[in-house]
Design brief:
Order of helices and strands: HHEEEHEHEHEEEHE
CATH class of the largest domain: Mainly Beta
Helix content: 10-25%
Structural class: alpha+beta
CATH topology of the largest domain: Porin
Distance between the termini: 62 Å
Shape: elongated
C-alpha cells in the first residue's frame, strides 16, 4: 500500500467514524433531561399521620386511618391521592365515658371514609430543573398547589340502626396549600403544610326514607363558616 492509498483509507475511516458519532449524538440529546434523571432519585412517598388515629378530619368526632401516596410526574411536579377509614375519635370516646356528659351511658357506632387528591409545584425543583442540577428536585423542598378533600361518617347506636335512624356528617373542602417536604437519609419523609380555602360541612339526620339538615348554629366554626384554615403534617416512606 503506497502513501496516497494509506492517507485515503485513513480519511475514509475518520469520516465514517465522525458521521457515526454525529448520528448518535441526537439520539442521546433527544432523551429529555428529566427522563435521564428520574431513575436516579426518589419519585414516590407513602405517607400517614399517627396523630390522626386519635383525632381525625371531623374534629371532636372521628379518628382517621390515613394513607396518602405522592408520585413525581416531572422534576418539579407531583400528584397525590389519599384514602382514609374513619372511626370513633378519642374526644368522643372520652365524652362517652364521662357520666356528666353522657349520663345515660349511650355508646355510638361510628364509621366512614375520606378521599383526597392534589397537585404540588416544587419551587426548588423547578429552579434545579432550569439549572440541570440533581439537588433539590421534587418531591423534596418547598411547594405550592391545590388540594381537595371529602369525608363522610355515619353515627348511630345499635337500637337506632335497627330502626333505620342515624346522623351523617359530611366535610368538604378545597384549598391552596403551601408546605415543605423533607426527605432525610434514604427513606424518611416529613411533610409539613398550611393553607387557606373553602369548606362546606353538614350534619344530616336520616330516619327511614326521610332526611333533613340539622341546625348547626350552635355547633361552632366548622359548621358555620366557609373559610377553611389548613395546618398539618404527614410522616412517610420515600422510595
Amino acid at each position: 500500500m503506497n502513501l496516497k492509498t494509506a492517507i485515503l483509507a485513513s480519511a475514509i475511516c475518520f469520516t465514517c467514524f465522525s458521521l457515526q458519532a454525529q448520528d448518535t449524538l441526537p439520539i442521546q440529546d433527544s432523551v429529555p433531561f428529566y427522563k435521564r434523571q428520574m431513575a436516579k432519585r426518589v419519585t414516590n412517598v407513602l405517607k400517614t399521620n399517627p396523630i390522626a388515629l386519635l383525632y381525625g378530619c371531623i374534629p371532636g368526632y372521628t379518628a382517621e386511618a390515613r394513607l396518602v401516596n405522592e408520585t413525581a410526574v416531572s422534576l418539579y411536579q407531583t400528584v397525590f391521592i389519599g384514602a382514609s377509614y374513619l372511626f370513633k375519635g378519642l374526644p368522643l370516646v372520652l365524652a362517652e365515658q364521662d357520666s356528666a356528659q353522657n349520663p345515660s351511658g349511650v355508646k355510638l357506632k361510628v364509621n366512614g371514609w375520606r378521599v383526597q387528591a392534589g397537585y404540588k409545584f416544587y419551587i426548588n425543583g423547578f429552579m434545579a430543573h432550569k439549572r440541570k442540577k440533581m439537588t433539590g428536585l421534587a418531591p423534596r423542598g418547598l411547594y405550592v398547589g391545590p388540594h381537595i378533600s371529602y369525608a363522610t361518617a355515619r353515627f348511630t347506636t345499635n337500637y337506632a340502626k335497627s330502626i333505620g335512624v342515624y346522623y351523617r356528617i359530611n366535610f368538604f373542602n378545597v384549598d391552596i396549600q403551601t408546605g415543605y417536604q423533607l426527605i432525610a437519609g434514604k427513606h424518611f419523609a416529613l411533610d409539613v403544610f398550611t393553607g387557606l380555602g373553602y369548606m362546606k360541612n353538614d350534619i344530616i339526620y336520616y330516619e327511614k326514607s326521610t332526611s333533613y339538615n340539622v341546625d348547626t348554629e350552635e355547633d361552632g366554626y366548622f359548621y358555620n363558616s366557609n373559610l377553611k384554615f389548613v395546618f398539618g403534617f404527614n410522616l412517610g416512606y420515600a422510595f
